[in-house]
Design a protein that fits this description.
Largest sheet of chain A: 8 strands, mixed
Shape of chain A: globular
Strand content of chain A: 5-15%
Oligomer: heterodimer
Number of strands of chain B: 2
Number of strands of chain A: 13
Distance between the termini of chain B: 45 Å
Structural class of chain A: alpha+beta
Strand content of chain B: under 5%
Largest sheet of chain B: 2 strands, antiparallel
CATH topology of the largest domain in chain A: D-Maltodextrin-Binding Protein, domain 2
Helix content of chain B: over 70%
Structural class of chain B: mainly alpha
Number of domains of chain B: 1
Radius of gyration of chain A: 23 Å
Radius of gyration of chain B: 26 Å
CATH superfamily of chain B: MetI-like
Largest interface: A-B, 55 and 61 residues
Distance between the termini of chain A: 65 Å
CATH class of chain B: Mainly Alpha
Helix content of chain A: 40-55%
């Protein structure tokens, strides 16, 4: 019996440890191998799933043009991609090349995981063909100003809507926030139809900030003294107005809805309008058909000046640990060429980084996309740049504050307190970063 | 005879002296790789500032992580409180329901084999699959709540209903474990004891209290202990159903570890939290084993 006690104690120790095991992700990755004179490079897609077929096609084309290089595709779900990169870096098993966005680029360069692409780009045929604004946005993310990621696409916050729902309610696509709130009220016939949906789960804060700055028209993320403007009174006002819509003009489930659940709710037809970005175009087309949906940019606030929050730029990075950096860059270069970049963005419905692709017919045939490109190109548009260079930015706007926004929706926290907390964290992170890099 | 023994021992070939160590070495190696090293590395990191988002501040932290945890982090205490509430509710209900089911399927009746299979089947379903099923059941648009007179009610999004919904899901999965272990215990009780008790005039209740329960003691202690540790460390079910939300009301300590270590990339602090969980579990388990005198000789 005593031995049973001992076995039991040991079992308890092992089980107690499973808390550690649960907190650790698995890592997978691979270095390139030479097989039969072929160089194999591993490519991680940072948004595996809907985009997988696009890359399968592009890889097929690339391998046909470069018979000595084989690309091994690994699709990583967007929700776990940062964690996968972090564990791969810690374990020394990074891919040769991977999809990266500026929202976590600083985190990767902070760990010295990426190879700068400046020299490669200077000698490349795509040099001079990539949009300067996107290149600048990438370079602004890292303290040394180098290009650790070659930009491929960018995005814009838009409000998707079902055309027939709006016309049935006699509502035009809103241009100002006043029109927007009126439209939401008119479109709601609870519990069968809701005018709006709030993203309350994962990814909520970025969308909320895009709404808040569009409403307030505050042009900078930090003021001259380095203080965050997130808790500007007008931003607080907007958060209060949005929270007031919860459960009245939106489904109750919104409080925990992440991107897939939010889109599922919209595509089920119950919700008339939904804030996301250009990237979810394919989901809507699949659900409703291309002629049934449209999108408008974020409404304009009381200042009358259109203000947008710059979306992360998405692109490709070559990893420092790669044994086949040249082959990896060759693949990046191929993905950025006019044909590939145009194909990729046509499939995803986003804005191509390659200037030559921007004149393509498919882009001009989609009014919402043409509109988005012109909003971005309009010198009157004020662009607020979030501090993607802060390695903490991602955790502040996700793990630290997402639960607080849920509290606001549930009436357990005031919008002022919520934004004050976020502002304080951002101001501190900004000061710490400045000190570390001075 | 004694001299013969000495001669054999003295003349044992050198290689043989190492044989016992050689034989236990695989076990020692496994323990070292899978227990000593992970525990040691968690302890090591709990004394470090190790935050991927602040690489410039990494380094030895002393007890700073523990100080922050105990005195400056209200979420540590709320998550610990929720964990305790979760473990107590789950273990209490699982024990009562599991015992009831075990007693029922221990009786002989037509279709007992089928009934036993039904009782145990949820245990065979994987955790993530279980939550997949229950997410569909709780879905406001397509799930079962539509028929309960509450259209569009988000059971998992409402702080008032989310705990009950989680408990129900975990009960569905956890009760069979108790039922299996207790049924095995029930079948080890000699039938003569019941006959003797019946002869002495004991009714059903007295037979249960004085024969069944004392014989089940070890099985109950073991089952509640194992399940307590499992429920304390339960991550898959709560993570997939609610992610600890809404507004952190269902965040258990292990989920909080995952949030701090993986989402916020603060592995130093996450390790300190893990260490706290480890110590709490170890202490509670040893205390429980001592108090219940598990494995001690006792009269039935």
């Amino acid at each position: 019996m005593r031995s049973i006690t001992k076995v039991c104690t040991a079992a308890v120790a092992v089980l107690a440890l499973s808390v550690t095991a649960a907190a650790c992700g698995s890592d997978s990755g691979g270095a390139g191998q030479e097989s039969g004179g072929k160089t194999t490079i591993t490519f991680w897609d940072n948004n595996g799933g809907v985009r997988t077929p696009i890359y399968q096609e592009l890889i097929k084309r690339f391998e046909a043009a470069n018979p000595t290089i084989k690309v091994e595709y690994v699709g990583i779900p967007i929700a776990s991609v940062q964690q996968k990169y972090d564990t791969a870096i810690a374990g020394g098993a990074t891919p040769d090349v991977g999809g990266v966005t500026t929202s976590y680029l600083a985190n990767l360069t902070g760990q010295q995981a990426l190879e700068p692409a400046d020299d490669w780009l200077a000698k490349s045929p795509v040099n001079g063909r990539l949009l300067d604004s996107m290149l600048a946005s990438v370079k602004a993310t890292t303290p040394d100003g180098k290009l650790y990621m070659a930009p491929a696409t960018s995005n814009l916050d838009v409000v998707w809507y079902q055309k027939d729902k709006l016309s049935a309610a006699g509502v035009e696509a809103p241009k100002t926030w006043d029109e927007f709130f009126t439209a939401v009220g008119k479109l709601t016939k609870a519990p069968d139809q809701y005018g709006w949906t709030i993203r309350g789960g994962a990814g909520s804060i970025f969308q909320l900030l895009a709404e808040a700055y569009a409403y307030s028209g505050v042009p900078e993320f930090f003021d001259a003294s380095g203080k965050s403007t997130v808790n500007d009174p007008k931003n607080v006002e907007l958060v209060g107005k949005i929270a007031a819509l919860y459960k009245k003009d939106t489904p109750e489930a919104d409080v925990t809805n992440d991107f897939p659940k939010m889109v599922a709710q919209f595509t089920s037809g119950k919700v008339a309008m939904m804030h996301h970005n250009l990237g979810s175009y394919n989901d809507h087309v699949k659900a409703f058909g291309a002629d049934k949906i449209d999108a408008f940019p974020m409404p304009v606030g009381a200042t009358g000046k259109r203000t947008i929050v710059a979306n992360p730029v998405d692109g490709f990075a070559v990893f420092k640990n790669s044994e086949h950096k040249e082959a990896a860059w060759k693949f990046v270069e191929f993905l950025l060429s006019k044909e590939s970049n145009s194909y990729w963005n046509q499939q995803t419905g986003q804005i191509p980084a390659n200037k030559d692709a921007q004149g393509d017919a498919w882009l001009n045939e989609r009014p919402y996309l043409k509109n988005a490109v012109s909003v971005l190109a309009d010198p009157q548009t004020a662009v607020v740049s979030p501090p993607y260079y802060l390695p903490q930015f991602s955790s502040i706007t996700k793990a630290d504050t997402e639960p607080l926004f849920q509290k606001v929706l549930l009436g357990q926290m005031k919008p002022q307190e919520f934004l004050d907390t976020m502002a304080q964290k951002l101001t501190e992170a900004q000061a710490e970063w400045k000190q570390a890099h001075s | 005879m004694a001299s013969t023994g000495t001669a054999v021992a003295g003349g044992r070939p050198r290689a043989l002296r190492w044989a016992p160590y050689l034989l236990i070495s695989p076990t020692v190696l496994l323990i070292a790789v899978f227990l000593v090293y992970p525990i040691g590395s968690v302890l090591y990191y709990s004394l470090q500032h190790y935050n991927l988002t602040k690489p410039w501040a990494n380094g030895f932290a002393g007890l700073a992580n523990f100080r922050e945890m105990l005195f400056e982090d209200p979420l540590f205490w709320t998550s610990l409180g929720f964990t305790a509430k979760w473990v107590v509710a789950e273990i209490g209900l699982q024990l009562v329901l599991g015992l009831a089911l075990a007693l029922i399927v221990n009786e002989s009746f037509i279709g007992r084999g089928l009934a036993r299979a039904m009782v145990f089947s949820p245990w065979a379903v994987s955790g993530v699959l279980t939550t997949g099923i229950w997410i569909l059941l709780y879905n406001p648009t397509t799930g079962i709540v539509r028929y309960l007179g509450a259209p569009e009610a988000a059971v998992l999004g409402n702080p008032d209903t989310v705990f009950g919904a989680l408990v129900l899901t975990e009960l569905w999965r956890g009760v069979p474990f108790f039922a299996i272990l207790l049924l095995a215990g029930l079948q080890g009780i000699p039938g003569e004891l019941y006959e003797a008790a019946a002869v002495d005039g004991a009714g059903r209740t007295r037979r249960f209290l004085h024969v069944t329960l004392p014989h089940l003691r070890d099985a109950i202690v073991l089952a509640t202990l194992l399940r307590s540790v499992w429920e304390f460390n339960n991550v898959d079910l709560i993570y997939t159903l609610t992610g600890g939300g809404p507004a952190q009301v269902t965040t258990t300590l292990p989920l909080y570890v995952a949030q701090r270590a993986i989402d916020s990339k603060d592995f130093g602090y996450g390790s300190a939290l893990t260490t706290a969980g480890f110590v709490i579990l170890l202490f509670c388990s040893l205390l429980y084993l001592r108090l219940s005198r598990f494995g001690a000789d006792h009269k039935g």
